[in-house]
Amino acid sequence: MSKPIVAVVGRPNVGKSTFFNRIVGRRVAIVEDTPGVTRDRIYAEAEWNGIHFAIIDTGGIEPASQDIILSQMREQAQIAMDMADVILFMVDGKEGLTHADQEVATMLRRTGKKVILIVNKIDNPRNLPVDFYDFYELGIGEPVAISAANMLNFGDVLDEIVESFPQEALEEDEDDIKVAVIGKPNVGKSSLINCLIGENRVIVSPIAGTTRDSIDTPFAWDGDQYTLIDTAGIRRKSKVNEDIERYSVIRAVAAIERCDVCLLMIDAEEGVTEQDKKIAGVAHEAGKGIIVVVNKWDLIKKETNTMRDYTKVIQSELQFMSYAPCVFISVKDRQRVLDVIRLSKVVAEKRAMRVPTGQLNSLVTDATMMKQPPSDKGKRLKIYYVTQVGVKPPLFSFQVNKRDLMHFSYARYLENKIRDSYGFEGTSIKFVFREKGEKEE
Asked: Per residue of the chain (441 residues), what is the pLDDT tens digit?
């Protein structure tokens, strides 16, 4: 099931990032830290009252003049309009209503999306400032007074968010394999999709995405149904001095949330860039299947081990997702293009695979005999039982005597043993460790 998307929009210094960080920091967010990728975190998965959703911070821009403020605010609002199911429009309760707020509100009213107006920096809702009521002029609805710094009224905001999600955003996906083509601009995303369509004669007419700034192309190949999601909307805005990488990642999130498998396209001549790492980090955290597709391979001068050496470089740059296979293609020459679809099916199946409990426990028992679990101050880790409790991505629950004794390196050792036996190519696998008597959350 894809998650609804919430975008936090507002001019600089109104408290968007504080709001976002408070949610993440108080464990409302379910986030896996990825060193080297998430230092500029703008995306998190969150849950409230059993409903999971993605939340995006569009803040962090510090413009130099009022004109740039307006242009960048328009860009932020446009992103929210393109992709979000619910938009949180944050304003500054201490500064009061500004012309920039009015500009963005005008755009948001035209979207037809649910917009929740949040007035931040209100430390005492019982003693509202006189100009608080000016925000009604924005025509968005009743303002919600909050204090992001003190987490005041967060529950009310989260209640309204989950109540506002459209039903279709919460419904189960169909049986087709959804493949999102993600990556920075000009790496050949649309060309790959056009090439794949040209190879196939059983094509359904392309359908324009309704709210996600993407184009969905359903088609059948080798007896299976696929939907290709093209994120060609990631593009440069040369007239605005903005953080291009941030906006590329934000736009990619929408496609990632809807898909089963992500094709991370990389330019063979450029290699893995910081922008690629950020986009890959979002897909990894979301638990999606991932395939690294190196395009423009025809432009690379080759020797005996060129492909092997290039794969090692990619795995070094993307260490947090070493499970992702690499495919080297040339869309222009139609070289190995169909391998992408074949591998997408394999990855989708691995992501949904279940390991029988008996086999799993036998494997872990053998692993612990080969390499003794860690100990601390004379107390050694004991693993009593392990079972797979989820798929997409695969989730394994370990019952142990003391959770703190499970060292990261030993968890990685167990993961490698499971992968050696069952593959799980192209998908992350996640572990949860519980002590005896502890109930599942």
From this structure: 567 888 888 877 788 878 887 876 643 322 333 333 233 446 677 788 888 888 887 754 333 345 555 565 556 556 666 778 899 999 999 889 988 888 888 888 888 889 999 999 998 877 888 889 999 999 988 999 999 888 889 888 999 999 988 776 556 556 789 999 988 877 888 888 888 877 443 333 333 332 234 567 777 788 888 888 877 534 433 333 344 445 556 666 777 877 899 999 999 999 998 888 888 888 898 899 999 999 999 999 888 899 999 999 999 999 999 999 999 999 888 899 999 999 999 999 999 999 999 999 999 999 999 999 999 888 999 999 999 999 999 999 999 999 899 999 999 999 999 999 998 999 999 999 999 877 655
* Element of type H or E holding 161: helix 154-164
- Spacing of C-alpha 331 from chain mean position: 26
Predicted TM-score (pTM) of the model is 0.66
- Rounded to whole angstroms, how far apart are CA atoms 57 and 44? 9
Closest CA to 274 of 231, 318, 208, 306: 318
Measure the CA–CA gap between 52 and 56, rounded to whole angstroms: 14
The vertex-170 CA angle with 41 and 4, nearest 5°, equals 20
Q: How many helices (H) and strands (E) does the chain have?
A: 11, 19
Say which residues have a Cβ less than 8 Å from residue 221's Cβ, sequence separation at least 6: 200, 202, 341
Query: Which of 192, 250, 322 has the alpha carbon at shortest distance from 58?
Result: 250
From its phi and psi, is residue 413 left (phi > 0), alpha (psi between -120 and 50) or beta? Answer: alpha
